[in-house]
Amino acid sequence: MYKNKKHIGYSRLEVFRRIRNIYFFKNSIYLVLLFAFLLISCNTKMPKKYAYTIGISYQNLQNEFILNIQDAIREKAKELNVKLIEVDGQGKAENQIAQVENFLALDVDAIILNPFDQYGSSPVVSIANREKKPVVVVNAVVVNLNKADAYVGSNDQEAGRIAAGYIVKLLNGKGNIAMIRGPNGHSAEIQRTEGIMEVVNKYPGIKIIFDQSGNWDRTQGLELMENWLSTGKPLQAVIAQNDEMALGAQKAIEAAGRQKDILVIGIDAIPDALRAVKEGRLCATVFQDGRGQGILALELAVKLCEGQTVDHTNYIPFQLITKESMIK
Asked: Which of 141, 146, 214, 208 is CA-nearest to residue 178?
């Protein structure tokens, strides 16, 4: 007979409950560990802290040469762990002044200025000095350049002398020339004009019969050339103070069927110009190392942030590029 007494051991239901409790306890531990792991992973993937933050105002990012400078600065910034705040001055000095004020509001560690106008953009340097922020000027100059901590660029008079010297050589010291300038008042326009005139004035047989600004713009170079060709005046060569304008002028010359009669030279050695030189559409260009300028400007800005002493003036030489020199 079955006697009603306390059963020793566990029923099936009790055993199930105990197994369930153990299961959930273990899974709770796993969940806690997983959550902790995710937290650690998230922390390791947080954006890294940059060594320095540098604000840079470009004169005009519609210009291919300036884009070369920008590309070089961006690449170097990644290498040096620098955060860039980049803005486009859009060909207006007043934009650059407002932009540097914004840089100061963001408390950047240094400023790089690629000035549009030597007079209009100069307050940027004064503002940086006032706030004790290092400022590096690149490619073009400002009237108070001596107040900047460093300058990186090329001697634009040298570029003018090289371009004019090559044209004079090809013309054997005789002929009519058109000169397409950069924006009036831009430091490169002033200095390249000085270099060109320094050479031309030595040759009485060389005459500049057309002389006007094309504002570094390819379309304006084309339109100027169309107007000059329509006058019917004899013309043997064009000296354009940058490649964009040279390429525009050459397009108009080709459309008029005058490519065998008129030589065209530019300055900067942008990719389109190098192709044109290789194909014989431009007689030459003068290489300006925009990438070298951009890289050195950022390196100097970082050194200034670190409190190092740097050279104030840093020139990167120009170089004549012809079809023959490209083949060598």
From this structure: 208
